[in-house]
Specification:
The complex is a heterodimer of chains A (541) and B (411). Chain A has helices at 3-26, 41-44, 46-66, 76-88, 94-102, 108-117, 120-135, 147-159, 164-173, 185-188, 200-212, 231-239, 288-297, 303-317, 336-347, 352-361, 396-408, 418-435, 450-458, 460-465, 473-480, 484-496, 502-512, 517-532, 535-538; strands spanning 191-192, 197-198, 244-247, 250-253, 392-393, 539-540. Chain A has 541 residues and is mostly helical. In chain A, the strands form three sheets. Chain A has a two-stranded antiparallel ribbon with strand order 1-2. Chain A has a two-stranded antiparallel sheet with strand order 3-4. Chain A has a two-stranded antiparallel sheet with strand order 5-6. In chain A, helix 7 (120-135) crosses helix 8 (147-159). The radius of gyration of chain A is 25 Å and the shape is globular. The two termini of chain A are 45 Å apart. In chain B, the strands form four sheets. In chain B, strands 1, 4, 5, 6, 7, 8, 11, 12 and 13 form a nine-stranded mixed beta sheet that branches. A two-stranded antiparallel sheet of chain B has the order 2-3. Chain B has a two-stranded antiparallel ribbon with strand order 9-10. The chains are: A mainly alpha (541), B alpha/beta (411). The interface between A and B is large, with 59 and 61 residues.
Chain lengths: 541, 411
């Protein structure tokens, strides 16, 4: 063993010892505290309550109209799991669950939500998810684009809960270097080596998908087949970026030049900037990018709020109100819930935390994912009306995050030992690739795949995380919970965020009964393996 | 279901030319329909001028030269020296037209034979193969994508169980195929899993079935214990064969495709990405053609040697072609009106080049062909009726295997 390994070993032992002490103090006794946390006042905020009511009414109206009976309410732990997966990208730790259980039932979900909104893990995870729709998943031209800087900027902004319209404005109109002014990466990522400037058409596509919820870029080559957009609209939008350049000072506004080929004559022609709808909201004075930004974030222009609500909804429920998430129909009617909450988001100054509070306080968020009635062909699927919580496949990074979390007992993230953090960055990414990243902005995750099963059954990472040594949760539970019933319950909580059913408990307790030492550790490792390989672990429900 | 012969004789009544009728007769006499498809996917959109449709000495060639092939009038772009020798077994279509100039939409069209439609998800050709053709004693996934890009073939409304199984460079053993504990413990774990699964399925019956989680576990386990898994690993092949395909990930992919077809896989996509040459078109194509040419040619000759050529359709295509006019940075941009693809095997005619593009790159191509018709041709070669309908379970719309018509000159 080299000196470095020895050092790492000591750090781990020290960390684990602390963890063990902490755990033995708090984990095995569940104390109910009736002390109401200050953060629970948020639920008492009458404005949030009114917004939630509006949302609930819109959703319930849909149930009534289609004669759908909503599922029963889910357990608090089930809702807690959804919330953690949506906000931090990982299941809650055993530590968080114990804290959660110690709070009074009326406030614990709200307290958990408020804790998560203040948590850097949430900011980091949401920043990464949102960044996909702003700058894509690729690393882009390195000289001119720093994805990490951009995500870090976004994460800071989310943690500080800066109004969303301000962030959008910065992305569209910022000038300066991509390192000092990270918002400019939104522009610099489209740098086209052919023309040696950011690409107005790619920018138009990004703006329209991410901030307007329309796929106007489909009109790049032809008029849109299902939407009223014309090629002219696309070029008009792109023209706002006709003056944007990048040089040693970073992103700057230079001389206007945008002359795409005309579809019919195939000859270049100059296009002046113009917006595809509500031209009266677009200021006639100012730099083109500033004018565009003003138009996008104008409270009278509903698109930004609508597409944002649709996306945040998708992040919370695993599925958007309107699919695809960035293609809201222009002619067809939008879901009333989407329209109502979007207006509410605008009215409350584009407050993202508030929007998350509203969406995750809705009745629909707290419903069971089970349903009494089997879905028959032709009948309305209750999931489609949010009458039952949708069953959706977890994304690879959520699986990776949850794998780590389930194996460490303590809450992962900036607060956990640096070593863990380091491991989670390197191995995680390879895991995400192997599990199958689902691309930029996809919420329509279909069924699980064979490689995913192979990875979770036989993969190195899982083997590593459940191995029988001092530092894994399975071993800690084996050591610290001598009573089989408690050990099984703890494993279920750590991996599936719930207690075992009577049948499950009996079954696994019988397997542990009378075992000791090695045999007992084997059995607990097997239990961990089993829980990690269940459908329940890999799906949001 | 109508078989290929029935289909051809029926079809001949309404539209086949006399030549087509003759061919149909010949097909009836001589051969069984194809059983598998290998899709050589050139992601990004290859330039027709630097591949299958050179116009040497014209302005649009921008210096690209052409070489003679085994079939006299047909010439290929320089760099295809190996494929040129196999030209008698390969056919080209040089007048492909589509309305999709976007990578994602173009890929969807070429892989499914349908234009993207927000209300329905069409199955890719590989999924159709798996759904329509007999299963046989195959333990491994029957739809595989090697070195997959962003949009591998999908099951669409036929179901996610027909999605392509994705693998990397087949230069060694598949990862994660070995269980970590002894057999008895492994068996106990699976039995335990039933207990947890039962609990979760309560009240979620249909939905849990749709996750295909259990099927994936079962299929993964069948794979883990199957000798057929060796088909993924080309290191068993003699060095001479490997050299023939080329010592590249794509070459190994093509070799693995042949091995997989041999054990009953229905469709293998082998991906060669990177053709999106908006800048430095010629250099990009030179590098990629160096990988494509030996692999494609070796695949044809190897399949022939093993008597599998007639049972395997090879389709070599990307989502679109590239502009005849070079742009200012020596690149070519997207061009869906007048591009090329290659077809071989599966009983299709070889040594034919259909259609023609304008050497000045201005006029639309003569006798244009659609991607729909290419799909119908491949489906007909598999002995299936392109007009056969499957029903999309969500919209209950009947959808034909292909909306095109088989290309008579190739059948």
């Amino acid at each position: 063993m080299g000196r470095r390994d020895l050092f790492l070993g000591l750090v781990v032992v020290a960390g684990a010892t602390l963890a063990v002490m902490e755990i033995s103090r708090s984990m095995w006794s569940v104390k109910r505290s009736d002390r109401v946390d200050v953060t629970s006042r948020v639920v008492e905020d009458s404005s949030v309550r009114a917004s939630v009511k509006t949302l609930d009414t819109a959703i319930e109206e849909g149930w009534r109209r289609s004669d759908v009976v909503p599922s029963a309410g889910a357990s608090d732990l089930a809702v807690m799991r959804r919330m953690s997966l949506a906000l931090t990208g990982s299941i809650p730790s055993l530590e968080e669950i114990r804290k959660f259980e110690s709070k009074s039932p009326e406030v614990r979900l709200a307290v958990h939500r408020e804790n998560l909104l203040k948590d850097r893990r949430t900011a980091d995870y949401l920043a990464e998810r949102l960044a996909r729709s702003f700058v894509g998943t690729e690393d882009g031209p390195f000289v001119l684009f720093r994805r990490r800087r951009f995500v870090a900027w976004l994460s800071d902004a989310l943690l500080a809960n800066r109004p969303y319209d301000q962030l959008v404005r910065e992305m569209i109109q910022s000038t300066g270097l991509w390192t000092d002014h990270p918002a400019t990466n939104f522009v610099s990522v489209t740098f086209d080596p052919m023309t040696e400037r950011p690409d107005p058409e790619r920018l138009a596509a990004r703006v329209s998908r991410a901030f307007l919820g329309i796929r106007i870029d489909c009109a790049r080559c032809h008029d849109h087949p299902f939407q009223p957009w014309k090629q002219e609209d696309f070029h008009g939008l792109a023209a706002f970026f006709g003056g944007v350049r990048s040089n040693l000072r970073g992103i700057v506004d230079g001389e206007f030049q945008y002359s795409p080929d005309d579809a019919r004559t195939k000859k270049p022609r100059t296009v002046t900037p113009h917006v595809p709808a509500r031209p009266e909201l677009c200021p006639s004075e100012g730099m083109p990018r500033e004018r565009l930004a003003s138009w996008v974030v104008d409270p009278r222009n509903p698109n930004l709020s609508r597409v944002t609500v649709n996306r945040v909804w998708a992040l919370m429920y695993g599925r958007p109100l309107v699919d695809p998430v960035d293609d809201l129909p222009v002619d067809a009617e939008l879901p009333p819930a989407l329209v109502a909450i979007a207006q509410d988001f605008t009215d409350h100054n584009y407050d993202l935390h508030r929007l998350i509070r509203v969406i995750t306080s809705a009745r629909a968020f707290g419903l069971e994912s089970t349903s009494e009635t089997e879905i028959s062909a032709g009948a309305t699927d209750p999931e489609s009306l949010w009458a039952s919580f949708p069953l959706t496949r977890l994304r690879p990074e959520q699986i990776a995050g949850s794998l780590y979390q389930s194996s460490t007992v303590r809450t992962m993230g900036p607060g956990s030992p640096w070593l863990m953090r380091f491991i989670s960055y390197t191995q995680r990414n390879d895991f995400v690739r192997r599990y199958g990243d689902t691309g930029e902005d996809e919420f329509n995750l279909r069924a699980g795949t064979i490689p995913q099963r192979l990875l979770l059954m036989n993969g190195d990472l899982v083997g590593e995380l459940i191995r029988e040594d001092l530092f894994t949760a399975s071993s800690q539970i084996a050591t610290l919970a001598p009573e089989p019933r408690k050990a099984v319950a703890s494993a279920y909580l750590a991996v599936l965020t719930r207690l075992p059913s009577a049948e499950e408990s009996e079954y696994f307790v019988r397997k542990l009964d009378g075992t000791s030492d090695e045999e007992r550790k084997h059995r607990l490792t097997d239990l961990y393996w089993t829980l990690l390989n269940s459908t329940e672990f890999s799906w949001n429900h | 279901m109508i078989d290929r012969r029935g289909f051809l004789s029926m079809a001949s009544l309404c539209w086949l030319t006399p030549v087509g009728r003759l061919l149909a007769d010949e097909a009836r006499r001589t051969r069984e329909p194809a059983k598998s498809v290998i899709l050589l996917w050139l992601g990004g959109g290859p330039s027709q001028l630097e591949t299958f449709d050179p116009h040497p000495d014209s302005r649009i060639a921008a210096g690209t030269r052409a070489i003679d092939t085994a079939v006299k009038p047909i010439r290929l772009a320089q760099g295809f020296e190996n494929l040129a020798e196999q030209m008698g077994s390969v056919s080209l279509i040089r007048s492909m037209v589509s309305k999709e100039g976007d990578h994602e939409r173009g890929t969807y069209l070429m892989k499914t034979g349908y234009r993207p439609d927000p209300t329905i998800l069409h199955p890719s050709i590989g999924a159709i193969c798996c759904h329509e053709l007999p299963v046989g004693p195959t333990d491994i996934p029957r739809h595989i994508s090697i070195l997959s890009g962003q949009w591998p073939g999908r099951g669409g409304f036929l179901g996610a169980e027909h999605d392509a199984f994705l693998i990397d460079d087949p230069s060694g053993r598949l990862p994660d195929m070995t269980r970590a504990v002894p057999e008895d413990r492994d068996a106990a774990r699976l039995k335990d899993l039933e207990v947890v699964e039962r609990s979760f399925a309560r009240g979620r019956g249909a939905r849990v079935r749709e996750t295909l989680h259990r099927e994936s576990v079962d299929r993964a386990r069948v794979m883990m214990s199957s000798a057929q898994v060796k088909a993924f690993d080309v290191s068993d092949e003699p060095a001479r064969v490997r050299a023939e395909y080329g010592d590249t990930p794509f070459g190994r992919g093509c070799l693995a495709a042949r091995r997989l077809i041999e054990v009953g896989v229905r469709c293998v996509e082998v991906n060669l990405e990177g053709w999106d040459s908006h800048v430095n078109n010629h250099e990009i194509h030179r590098k990629l053609v160096k990988q494509l040419d030996p692999a494609f040619a070796a695949l044809v000759s190897d399949l022939k040697r093993r008597g599998m050529f007639e049972r395997t359709v090879i389709l070599c295509a990307g989502e679109f072609g590239r502009t005849p006019r070079m742009n200012l940075t020596g690149g070519r941009d997207h061009w869906p009106t007048g591009f090329s693809l290659a077809l071989a095997g599966g009983g299709l005619r070889g040594g034919v080049a259909l259609g023609e593009t304008d050497p000045e790159g201005k006029k639309d191509p003569a006798s244009p062909r659609t991607i729909e018709d290419v799909h119908a041709t491949v489906i007909a070669a598999l002995g299936l009726d392109p007009g056969k309908e499957n029903v999309d379970p969500i919209t209950t719309r009947p959808i034909k295997l292909s909306s095109g018509r088989p290309i008579p000159e190739l059948l």
